[in-house]
Amino acid sequence: MAIPEEYKPLVLAYCQEPEPDEADLLELNQAWDSAEAYLEGAGVTRPAPENAKRLSLWLGVMLPMVLDEYDQRGAQFDAGKLQDNAVFRRKLNQLKQTEPPLSEEETP
User: Fold this and answer.
1) Residue 18, by phi and psi: left (phi above 0), alpha (psi -120 to 50) or beta?
2) For 24, which of 1, 20, 32, 57 could close a Cys bridge (C-beta 3.0–4.6 Å)?
3) Segment 2-45, tens digit of pLDDT
């Protein structure tokens, strides 16, 4: 999926990318999809447009998550050492916490 057209101007303005090139747009779309999936995994779904208050709260969480992932999309180095990517770590933890239990047949 991609950033919905009705939210694209908000995302581009929030991420300070008024005219992204194709590569930046691809990364922004991936950041959007990832943030939305993260929230859905936490039990937070996109509200209907009619619910303006909840939608504004949801966007208030989504936009910073998209920017955070977009800003931290590369490896981070400090003094020549690879540092942990906080966005990746949070998503990995969310994935672990929402993993369904294995059945007896699937147990290694």
Assistant:
1) alpha
2) 20
3) 999 999 999 999 999 889 999 999 999 999 999 999 888 888 88
What does the domain layout of the chain look like in residue ranges?
Answer: 8-97
Cα distances (Å, whole numbers) of residue 84 to 71, 73, 75, 76, 99:
14, 12, 8, 7, 22
Unique residue bearing structure tokens 């998550």: 65
**Which pTM was predicted?**
0.71
Q: Contact at 8 Å (CB) between 47 and 55? A: yes
The Cα 44–Cα 37 span in angstroms is: 9
Which tokens sit at 50?
A: 């009619």
Q: 24: helix, coil or strand? A: helix
